[in-house]
Fold this sequence. Notes:
Layout: H1 12-25, H2 33-45, E1 50-54, H3 59-67, E2 73-76, H4 82-90, E3 94-97, E4 120-126, H5 135-145, E5 148-152, E6 160-161, E7 164-165, E8 172-176, E9 189-193, H6 196-206, E10 210-211, E11 214-215, H7 226-235, H8 239-257, E12 263-264, E13 272-273, E14 280-282, H9 286-298, H10 324-332, E15 333-335, H11 344-358
Parallel strand pairs: 2-3, 2-4, 4-5, 5-8
Antiparallel strand pairs: 1-9, 6-7, 6-13, 8-9, 10-11, 12-14, 14-15
Helix pairs in contact: 1-7, 2-7, 3-4, 8-11, 9-11
The protein binds pyridoxal-5'-phosphate.
Pyridoxal-5'-phosphate binds at residues 56-58, 80-81, 83-84, 126, 152, 154-155, 176, 178, 189.
Amino acid sequence: MINVTKTFLPSFEEYTTILKKAWDKAWITNNGMLVQELETKLQKYLNAQHLLYCGNGTIVLQMALKAFNITKEVITTPFSYVATTNVLLWEGCTPVFVDIDPENFCIDASKIEAAITKNTQAILATHVYGLPCNIELIEKIAVKHKLKVIYDGAHAFGTEYMNKPLLSFGDISTCSFHATKLFHTVEGGCIICHKEELLRELMLMRSFGHIGDEYFSVGVNGKNSEFHAAMGLAVLPHINSIIEKRKEISALYDRLLSDSNIRVLNFDKEKIKYNYAYYPVIFASEKDLLNVRILLEQDDINTRRYFYPSLNTLPYLKSASACPVSEDISRRVLCLPLFPDLEEEKVNQISGTIKKLVNI
Ligand SMILES: *Cc1c(COP(=O)(O)O)cnc(C)c1O
């Protein structure tokens, strides 16, 4: 069975050697030494001014909204994982969906201003598949209308934009370190910001709002454990080779699919150093997609419909505007298996199956 991704695991010894440091002290959570070590290393790798390692990639989005007191309208993307919309609803905010750019699948920044009202407080956008949003235009609009910019960078680990880590943009950027993501700590996530004051607030939020016997603010449990941090410390030394392998496999798919009528990712290699987090393909029709999916399943190959459905069509939304581009692409996009030890023979087989069906 081949899945769309396969979690990278370090050797068991690499993991346990690191974990033993915490184990021997019997200090296994609450800002332990491994959490602190991982934070320092991630901060360096991501060139982040302030970074907090947290429980997952969802709680960090909730913390970001809380830190900025966002309770009203938030301009957001309909093309993302459902968590991006759910956090807004969970925090009592109103998601205002702006359609996506058909080229990079991120929010179409040129359509943001038309959606701003007197109740708009923030923009929450996703760097879809690890490719950057229109950072410059979003920044310009945010400054003009005094809006906070929060980037859901769950896919963005390792991508660089204009020679800077993609996670370093926005008022806050978040990332997910879930086992299905490029860099993982089993479960986990981080939040990145640039202001000392904000860091302190987020730090309190992460840990119930108190330090010892001093109580400052309303907090939640956004912490993560030494067991999770140990996984991160064991995976991190492999990250460059993980990205390199993914790049090679993506290039092989590109080559094999180049003479087919399906669309593959296209990005500006001058400005973007991509992390190869996903390998999405866009079919001419949903029917093609469903047929290919069935054929691949017969060979025990599982693809995923990232992202489907378009989030503006979620059944529990009270109201949402139409987003024709996102609705169309979400029906036609499929992510193909991509992970470091995916065999060349399998990439050949998958590409062959696709071409057999769509090239007739
Ligand atoms: C995975 C993901 C999340 C949620 O991260 P968790 O760590 O699973 O909570 C949020 N947003 C996007 C875009 C994601 O892909």
